[in-house]
Structures are given as C-alpha cells and as structure tokens.
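## tool: complex_structure
## caller: assistant
## args:
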Amino acid sequence: MNIRKAVIPVAGLGTRFLPATKAIPKEMLTIVDRPTIQYIVEEAVASGIEQVIFVTSEGKSAIENHFDYDFALDTVLHMKKKENLAEELNHISNLIDIVSVRQKKPLGLGHAIWSTRNVVGNEPFAVLLGDDLVLSDEPCCRQMISLFDDVQESIVAIQRVPRDQTKSYGIVEGKPYDERTYTVDRMVEKPAPGVTDSDMAIIGRYILRPEIFSLLEETEPGHGGEIQLTDALLKLSRQRAMYAYEFQGTRFDAGDKLGYLKAIIAFGLRHPELGKEFRKHIKQVAENF
Ligand code: G1P
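## result:
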C-alpha cells in the first residue's frame, strides 16, 4: 500500500501567538518569505504525497486562499512584467491537490484526524502537524514513508528530549528494532513526572493505518479533556505492530515563541538569497550583544 494522502490539522486557535494571531491564522506567520504552512505542504509534496487534506475551522480561509490561484493578482503581476513572481505564485497554487474538511468542534487532535475519515478512506496516510518544522536533507515525511514501505504498519516520529520536557509531548516506550527505529510498547500523552522513564517524544509526523479511525471514534477525552491521537495510537499498538522512528534532521517548534525565532534563524541561514549576508550579521550580533 502506498501513502498518497496527508492530513494537516490547521484548526487550532494559536493562542500562544496572540495578538499576532488575532486576525490571521498562526499557520500564516512567516519564516523569512513564506508562511509556515507552505513549508509543511512543500515537505508533503517532496515526499510524494498527491493530496493534502486540511482540517480547518472558522477564520482559516487565508490558508486556503494562499494555495489557490488568484486571477486578479496574476493579471496585475503580468501587466507589471513581474513574470518571475507570477510564476512563483502559480507554482504555489499548482503544488498539490488540496481538500478542506471542517472540524465541527474543538475536541482535540484525535477528533481533528477523525474528521477526515471519509476523505482519507480505507488507506494508510501521513499526518503532518503545522507547529513542527523539520530542516533535513531528506524530508522527514519521506523518511517515514520509506520505513512504511518496509513495515506496512503505523509509525510515529520521535526525538529525544530532556526529562523535564517530557510533560509537553506524547511519550513512547519501546524496544530497539534497528538503528533509528523502535517497536512501540506503550505511549502516554503529556505524562506527569514519574509516569514514564522514557525520553522519546512524539514529533508531529505520523504514518497511520486506516484502522485508527474506528479507534478514534471510541476514544474518550483524555489529557486536557481532549480526544487524544496518542490514546487511540496506544490502542492500535495493542492490536498490531507500531514503530517509533528517530528521524534525521532538526525540528523546530514553530508554535512556541523561542522555537519560532530559532526556525527563522535556521531557515534564514539556508535561504539562497540571504544566506551569506545573514550569517555575517548573526556573527556580529553574537559578538556585540
Ligand atoms: C501534539 C501531540 C503530542 C505530540 C506533539 C508534537 O501535542 O498530542 O503527542 O508530542 O503534538 O508536537 P500539541 O503540541 O499539539 O499539544
């Protein structure tokens, strides 16, 4: 079975970035010259995904517009002979086939994923969370699809985190399977201190088998009163094998102020137009302040 579809939940309120996110979705905040959501969609495209399914809520139409063709803007850019810019914007709208599904109630990540069941259908699919940006040579999602090609079972991306941060993540316990991969024994969403010794934190990339939908349907609200994807994954891991994969690359939590600034610096240093000048500037800043 091939992974053709990717679910990207974008229904969250973005309260951590208020007031910036009062009138625009947090996914439209920019890293250098493109909104964070574009990096996520580009990762999906570079991983061979054919269709993206956004899970949206009220006030998120800017995201759909961003990936749409804008006839008026295209006409003006051509009139002003700004062909390169027009081409770049058309490239964005041609990136991929996009479908939107509304999350009817803000009941959590598990509920957001469940909302896509009729669009995903009976096939395995990828999930990419918009807060997690990954800078890597091979796109993180593609690394996971390669592993799925071998194991044909659900996979969660993980990275090691300091013990005092495990309470902010879904945490996985498992046994080594090969160099970067573990078989999942147990998982717990945002554990209180002492609940687990593991430091393997789930990062926002998943490959899920479609069996997850019926399990989500019967999952009771968990941590924070929300329907947690992690709780449904734990049930799935008891029915069939599941893997945790320590991906290659650096992850930035763009949903957090410090993580967002770190992402801007890293992506800025890699930017073809800015790289050299920006590196010089960063060095000066580090020396002078
Ligand atoms: C979600 C998941 C959590 C995961 C995290 C990764 O939490 O519920 O298991 O570790 O994403 O970013 P959130 O950060 O949305 O609260």
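## assistant note: The chain has a mean pLDDT of 94. The pocket of 1-O-phosphono-alpha-D-glucopyranose is lined by residues 109, 129, 131-132, 169-170, 189, 201-204, 229-230 (CB under 6 Å). Handing back to user.
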